[in-house]
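During the no-cost extension, the postdoctoral fellow (Dr. R.K.) reprocessed legacy sequence entries with the updated structure-token encoder. One reprocessed record is reproduced below for audit purposes.
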Amino acid sequence: MILHIDAERPAPRKLQPVIDALKRDQVVIYPTDTGYAFGCAISSPKAIAVLRRLKGIDERHPKPLTMLVNDIADIGRYAHMGTSLYRLVKRLLPGPYTLVLKATSDTPRTMYNRHHEVGIRIPNHAVCRMLVELLGEPILTGSVSSADGEPELEEADLLANRYAREVSVTIDAGPIWPDPSTVLKMIDDEIEVLREGQGELPF
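Re-encoded structure tokens follow.
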């Protein structure tokens, strides 16, 4: 199923089929501020396993999975963040950044890596924010990136065709060329740049 959505003014009722799919342990494709992404509910081990296969990240992989939350307070529930970094994070988010932090006990075991780290995002995108609000929990997210030798796709209908077997619903918000987030590891009040992307470095 492909849903055509106004990216700037999404209507909650039009997003209901996506919410229904997420609640049925399914994976969806949706737009973000850094390109189209796979998404599923963090409470669904079944869907998380599918998304891991799509991304090629098994549970032994050093890279943690990333969740979308809606505000800074949610970060404190799912990850540990020192008070010295709070002001910086408040300035950066919402925006094209992924923060890698130590996971708390509220983070599902299937989300974090062997170092108990988890990725957190608050995208500057109305559809993302509304999906998290309507679902009532964070959404596990993973950018839709092409395998070696395959062309990058920016159009939702082409992505829906490519992943028709794994994805039940695709939100079409128009062409979005992939432009990755900047990834910042914030452990013990130290900042390490893991990837320079769309977001400007904060120092």
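Helices lie at 16-23, 45-55, 72-78, 83-92, 126-135, 156-162. The chain has six helices and eleven strands. The remaining legacy entries will be reprocessed before the final report is submitted.
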